[in-house]
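Box S2. Input/output pair 1.
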Amino acid sequence: MNPEKEHKKGGSRLQKSTEKPEKQKKPRVPLTSRQKALRVVYIVVTVIAAIIVTAFAASRLLFVKPNVPTTQNRPKPPVASGEPISSDAPEINDSGRKEDFFTFLIIGRDTGGGGNTDTVMLVAYDVPNQKLSVMNIPRDTMVNVSWDIKRINSVYNVYGGGDDGIQALFDEVSQLVGFIPDFSVVVEWEAVGEMAEAIGGVDFEVPVNMNYDDPTQDLHIHISKGMQHLDGEGVMKVLRFRDGNNNTGYVNGDIGRIETQQKLLKAIVEKLLTKVTEPSTILNLAGVFTENVTTDLTVQNIFWFGQQAVLGKPPLSIDNVNFVTMPCTNKSVWSRSFAGKSYQFQSYVVPNTEELVSVVNEYFNPYLEDLDDKDLDIMYVNSDGTIGSSTGVLEDTRHNSAWAAYKSTPKETPTPEVSETPELPESTETPAPGVTPDPGATSAPPGGGGGETTAPTATPSVGLEGPTDDEPAAPEPTPTPDSGAESGPPEGIPII
């Protein structure tokens, strides 16, 4: 018996009917040379198309163009204790926006200096024309607020920092430039040094000899004037320096430091544009950004801006990166918080309105319609010491009346009590009539600073010593007037 047949079911006819005849294989027709070439082209095109589709899908995920916020979806400005923001920030909508024109408010916050926003920069990126513009707004800029010390660098802290501080600062900057910036970028200043370190340092022409020592901060700056290769630490020292220990530093104070900061940042940007295509540099910069930057932009938005700058046609060139400083004038204004003290007059800068409007329209205005001065809220100082706002509304309703009362109060010069007239040495000349020697007088502290000098010629009137209940609960920022100001409290630490 055949074992193979034993395992088959059904009769022979059934088995025959279920067996299918084998198909005859047709012989392959060989391809011609042209057909082979076309087949290769087809495969290559298919692969390329697949890569393009994949890259496009990835780019849609990695490179996302940001949506510009509108008035409706912006957070409302906060209200600090005693300081409501009553006016809407200006915004020009009727004329329409320029295509792919984005504005940013970059805020440099120094954790070593109490967290004040001592660096405020308005940035505009015109993508189609590949132009990047940066305007420094000096930290001593006078703004229309209700509290006594009206420097713009106090706004962030008065509102408690964070999102509320940012929105309040947005509002004040919008009053200066006539529109609300699109996005915010808060940078811890240490990030600039880390960024410079990530690109291998930068060559820079240091404008002045920089010598400063502050043991309390373990801060020691010793950098010679001239071309220097600065690593991350060196970059931070140059950015921080303003006044040296021996009455050295920038002749024009904070404006000089701003000019140096602008040139140094431009040098960093120039090198960054040449290094940003290196994978290791990108990874290092991503780490710096993640740890030190807070922004309302997404990572994909930032990648999109980087893509436009590096791969744009043409790409962004350092020749099209422009730094300017807000046109301004130095002013000195009486402070009721420091009435009667040697630094009762505080140093400020106030914008030069016509020049500011011209600069904003040329580089920063995102709208098709030009701005004019009626779109701004600019503070000014009258010759009699009173202050005002170009809008006609002064948020600080106390200043002018308090200044008038202080001026009208008689100031007595205290005369020290002397029990007996001291004998003068024979070699000492007799003082002129009416002049009484003061044996209790003390000399100024050595070094021209570091101690408080009291002016006994001014006695504050009752009710004018410091803020009262109608002022914000947040403490007044410590005044730090620039070099060359009429007077000011001890500088302390010359950092931003």
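Box S3. Input/output pair 2.
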Amino acid sequence: MRTPAKSKLIKVTPPRVLAGGFALIIIIGSFLLNLPAASADGQSMRYIDALFTATSATCVTGLIIVDTGVHFSLFGQIVLLLMVQLGGLGFMTMATWFTLALKRRVSLRDRLLLKESMNHANIDGIVRLIIRVFLYSITIEGIAAFYFMLRWAEEMPLGKAAYFGLFHSVSIFNNAGFELFGGFRSLTPYVNDLGINLVSMMLIFFGGIGFVVISELIEFPKTRKLSLHSKVVLSTNGILVLAGGVLILIFEFTNAKTLGSMPWDTKLVASFFQSMTLRSAGVNTLDIAELRTATQFLMIVMMFIGAAPGSTGGGIRLTTFAILVGAFIAMLRGKEDVVLFRHRLPAKDIYKAVTFTLTAVVFLSFATMLLSTLQDQDFLKILFETTSAFGTVGLSMGLTADLTFAGKIVMICVMFIGRVGLVTLAFALQPNPKKELYRYPEGKIIIG
């Protein structure tokens, strides 16, 4: 008698749980946004538009098809805000906080999931880190919301100003880029408002450097030390923001549609604000469509790099870029080791950085070519939009509102993969791994 083959169960791994968790939040959010109560006019929006918006909110991207402040009711806006907060902090962070609030024990499996979601090196102290992440995030958002409330109380009733302050504080800190001012204007009316610019840049900075780095910075006065990871993130972020700000100022200095007619101090603030927002924020004080081609291409490169691991941003990540630059410099100098801040990096980290970057380039190229066949638009505009979606930035040159049904599906996939991460998604989809029992002999090929 023939024995029936045993069915192979799919192993539940952290990458699969994380990818599935984000997908579940998106599906639930899309159904809520599709309800008539979510729209200001009481009419259900098309489900594909609700799915696109839910994906953009959960993946903290900020690309929008409809005007958030005009189309959605208070209920719809609150649903968006909750998805942004869940997507930014991570559903595992929120779930752990509720578990601790109910005084329940966090299991080893949950700790492994947290380690994966936070891109942490190990599970030691991961629960303490989650507690700090939640408290730091709420504190930072609260301080910014209070300032925004005071500032906008000059223009609107206090209750509305408080709501606007809370919404935009959460949106900017989580690098989502949703705004309520209407007309797809983002923060362009406040290009010369120093206070709003500085507070927004502070939110973008803390949201983009990662929760591990935030924790170390806050504890630095007591510990007087930073990890190699934090040093690399902070230095790389600083260099990119400085370089981006200077280049944007140079490229747009005489552009009458952007910086040309502004005084010197506003030009400086606007240039560095745009550079900071490229870390994945999605808010802008200059009209992206009116920027020069050189500036738009610079933005594409910066958006591709993205924010830090374990942050609310996307892209290939700051640390990946730093490792690639370190490897490039080491190769030019004839060095065998890649050294950053007097620390030699293991070969596996360099391989991972190269693999992740090459995979991102291939994926983004394919997505751009696919969208080019679906949309009759300028190639640079399509490349800008897909890079913005992959880096979960949310800046737009105006293409998103004109996407076809198929184009929206493509962008939904790009946003989801950009937030979850190509490597995480690859591990989630691959079969149960098997250990290799042999190694092939070493071979040599000619390079260069």
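Caption for Box S3: The two ends are 61 Å apart (CA to CA). Confidence is low (pLDDT under 50) at residues 1-9.
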